[in-house]
Each structure stands twice: as C-alpha cells, then as structure tokens.
Amino acid sequence: MIALLRPHGLLRESLRKLRGNPLGFGGLVIVIVIGVLTVFAPLFATHAPNEVDVYARLQPPSGEHWLGTDQLGRDLYSRVLHGGRIAMTVSLVAISLSMALGVALGMLAGFGPRWLDRLLVIGFDTVRSFPTVMFALAVVALIGPSLNTVIGIVIITSVPAYARVVRTQTLALRERDFILAERAMGASTWRILRHHVMPNIAAPLFILASMDIPAVVGLEAGLSFLGLGVRPPTASWGSILSDGYAYIRNSPWPLIAGGIPLVLVTLGFTFFGEALRDIFDPRLRRKT
Q1: Which of 110, 155, 186, 253 is the most exposed place for a label (fewest CB within 10 A)?
Q2: Looking at residue 98, which CATH number applies to its domain?
Q3: What mean pLDDT is predicted for residues 71-100?
Q4: pTM of the full predicted structure?
C-alpha cells in the first residue's frame, strides 16, 4: 500500500491493471497511434494536404492515394492526418485550459465563503443551462468562424463541469481529519490545497478529460461540417465529411475517410477513460 502512494508505484500498478483490461489497453493503443500520427503528420503524409490535382478527382484508394481523393483531387489520407492536428489541438488546448480554470474556480467555491460558493454555483448552472450546440452556433454567428472561436466555445462550456467536480471533491475533503489537523498546525490554505486537495482530485479530472476529448473533437467536426469551424482550405475532419456528403453520389471515399478517424477517436478515448475510471475509482478498487 505504501508503494501505491508513491508516483512511480501508482503508475506501475495502473499500467498493470490497464494491461489486464483488453478494451482499456486497446483504447490506449488507439490513442497513442492517433497521437503519433497527428503530431508527426508532415512526416507520415504522402502529399501536401492542399495539393490540387483535378485529373485525379474522386479517385478510389490506390497505391498513390491510400484513402482516395476528394472533389479537387486532394489526397484524403494526407488531409485526414493534418485534420487530426486541428482536432487534437482544439481538444487538448481547450480541455487543458478548461481544467485549469475549473480547478481554480472549483477550489475557490469549495474552500471559500458560503456566499461566494453560491454565486459561483449559480454561474456554473447558468452556463450549463444553454445547449452546447445552440450556444456554439450563436457565438460563431456573432464572432465568425475560426479555430480560436471553437476553442473559446469549448472552454466556456466545459469549465462548469470541471469546476463542479472539483467543488464537490473539495467540499468532501475540507472536513476530513487530516485537513483539520493541517489547519490546527497552522498550515496555509494554499498549502492545504496544493498538497492535499489537488492530489486527491487529479484522478477524477483526468478521467473526465479523457471522456471529454471525443465530445470536443465531435463538436469541432460538427462546426466544420456546417462551415462554421476552421476556414477552408485548412484540412478538418468535419470539412472532409462535408465534402464527402456533397459528392456521395460520385464517390463514397471522402465520407468514409472523414468518418473513420472520428469513430476511432471516440472508441479509443472512451475505452481508455472507462479503464481509468475502473482503476482509480476507490470503490471499484476495494472490490478487486
């Protein structure tokens, strides 16, 4: 048990349990493969993503074009890889900033005065009361489509979820004996939050983040599909799907090429997040 409290012991035990979960380990493999392909997209791409070849438009998969070509003759495999960079950038940047803001506001609500807690909870509930897609459409209509707009939408709509989780965990911890003992010894609030609260809320936050990534990727793809995301000719999974839908009677390959990565991302992060929940949930741990 003492080894599990150390970072390297906890990591080793978590990896051992993850290897015993076929779906979770498969999800991790998918996540790693997608991450490597998207980060090093220029190295793995066979063509420039915006290279036009009208003589090779709407071609099926071949040795030269592994996933076929779109209506402008652009290589779909290369565009899928570069589109993955957009999807991962939006999801990782937005979720990281959302988590940071959510942790700060959640701990402020949980450890702050009661009036501040109520005020922040009202703010969280107000933001969460708006349907995400409708809110996104309204913001894009007012500001205009861009990558920064999509990231901002995700941050605004995701912060309340993280803040509520942190607030709940903080309220549950603030009256625990070891926290009261720290207070009695004169420890500052910052020290208590940094050394005792944050380590205890890290696991639920990472689980929530892994489950949110497919939703954020889907939101970015949906906005790009509607022409409200990243600007053409920048490659995006949503824009590839939109082009495929427009030319589905001529060729199904653009639609297939844009849909496969969305399915893989959803399956990979969902399986991985479920495995993390099984590993870090204390109640499930006691049962095992």
Answers
A1: 186
A2: 1.10.3720.10
A3: 93
A4: 0.84
Return the bridge partners of 75, or none: 69
What one-character DSSP code corresponds to residue 69? B
**Which tokens in the block code for residue 257?**
């090429």
Q: Is residue 48 part of a domain?
A: no
- Residue 190 is predicted with a pLDDT of 76
Q: Give domain status of residue 194, yes or no.
A: yes
Q: Which domain holds residue 136?
A: 79-287
Residue type, 36: V
3-state SS, residue 71: coil
Q: Tokens 């207070």 label which residue?
A: 183
Which structure tokens are listed for 206? 């990472």
Give me the number of domains the chain comprises: 1
d(CA 91, CA 207): 15
Contacts of residue 190, defined as CB under 8 A and 6 or more positions apart, other chains included, come to none
HSE on the CB side for 28, CA within 13 Å?
A: 14
Contact 168/162 with Cβ under 8 angstroms? Answer: no
In this structure, is residue 232 part of a structural domain? yes
Looking at residue 131, its pLDDT comes to: 86
**What is the mean pLDDT of the segment spanning 72-90?**
93
Q: Is 219 contained in some domain? A: yes
Cis before residue 233, ω within 30 degrees of 0? Answer: yes
Question: How many angstroms separate the CA atoms of 206 and 280, rounded?
Answer: 10
